[in-house]
Amino acid sequence: MPNYLLAIDQGTTSSRAIVFSAQGLPVASAQQEFKQYFPQDGWVEHDGEELWLSTLKVCREALQNGGLSAGDIAAIGITNQRETTLVWDAQSGMPIHPAIVWQDRRTADYCAELKAAGHEAAVAAKTGLLIDPYFSATKLRWILQQVPGARERAERGELRFGTVDSFLLWRLTGGQSHKTDATNASRTLLFNIHSQQWDDELLALFDIPRSLLPEVLDCAADFGHTTPELLGASIPVLGMAGDQQAALIGQACFSPGMVKSTYGTGCFMIQNTGATPVTSQHRLLTTVGYRLKGQVSYAVEGSIFVAGAAVQWLRDGIKLISHARDSEAMAEQTGDACGVYLVPAFTGLGAPYWDPKARGAIFGLTRDTGIKEIVTAGLQSVCYQTCDLLEAMRQDGAAAPSALRVDGGMVENNWVMQFLADILGVPVERPEVTETTALGVAYLAGLQVGWYASLEEVASHWHLQRRFTPRMAGEHRSKLYAGWLDAVKRVRSEG
After folding, report:
1. CATH number reported for the structural domain that contains residue 230 in this entry
2. I need a labelling partner for 223 at 20 to 30 A (CA). Which of 174, 204, 365, 491 fits?
3. Parallel, antiparallel, or unpaired for β 341-343 and 404-407?
4. What is the pTM of this model?
5. Which DSSP symbol is given to 276?
6. Residue-wise pLDDT tens digits, 244-281
7. Domain span at 156
């Protein structure tokens, strides 16, 4: 009798597989990092084959680590880095170009042209998104233009496009299933979030043949079955959601007003707005939070491109630390008022600035500044950027949340979590299971299997591990945050 759910979490820097029990507890996992490629300034790529092989490897290892076989798994859920764009051959499944990652900025000039031509308002009205290199449509157009013969092949129906979820599903099902879910579709700039369909006018604007696109399903649905030889038996794939939406579900943010923030490579804050899409006046994104049984719950989202990636840069780029965990002790020694600000605009600034041409900088250096201060400033930058997002949500009229639920690799750092609560002036809640992205799609698969009768039943499995309460004086908070806003102002391309 299958008693477990397998969640595939294909992220920006690693692929993971986690096996969960019906109670939502992790029982086995495996993870593998893979290479990021930076062929030019502002370009970021992955090898599609590596995404697939690392995913397959961690699925097999997670089963092995748990002493389980494919027969013990009731269903698979897939969650993924979202806007990353792949185009592959419809026969062989081989990508025709490296995957262009969500962080990639190569289409910035084309986006600027579209905005100058006055398209942004119409695109935003349909998609809830801004015209920005972040989203899939301009990346897809770039591949069709740059790879010899790609456009002709696309028009003949010989190619397929997908975000990473669709590509993995295609491979898992031996090319039988070309599908995605409403959350991933809503991040492409090609999907109308009101009609819940691919939009002909958007396809015409970006010059995308419809034959490339996957079928869009609910987040809990029958996406297909794995071919038996991959994992040892055929397993249904029954849950799918982009990583941030999956974390919203894993954090049980099912009531309008609830907010979660995920700290992985980037940082993403999402607030559930319920059945009504809310339009932000401060350049936050309106997006699909989840779609179940045809009913959409919308959300507003702020995206920060660099969070954990700042710590990764401190470790691998400039080698100030040997391990990410070293940063906590350094920050404790330094304290919050180190006077240094690191603005990690390595690939531009995300919400609420949306400035693809901004670049990173460190301010406030003195003769006394050492490694500890720069590392602390790197950690603080993540919290300041979160403050930017919460501030934008407040200005859009959202009620201040009673608490912020957090997840992702960085939330293990107690110093960062306390500073986050302090700079936001809002309690921060860390759950027992911090792998909420993977947990979210496990829940979706469990809903489809019939293990959970309702979202309320899913929510009953959420447990608090630790609550961080703000302790910082208001005056000190304002002073620190003003210093951050000044630093950001200095790196903006528009001044």
Report:
1. 3.30.420.40
2. 204
3. unpaired
4. 0.88
5. S
6. 999 999 999 998 888 999 898 888 899 998 998 888 88
7. 4-244
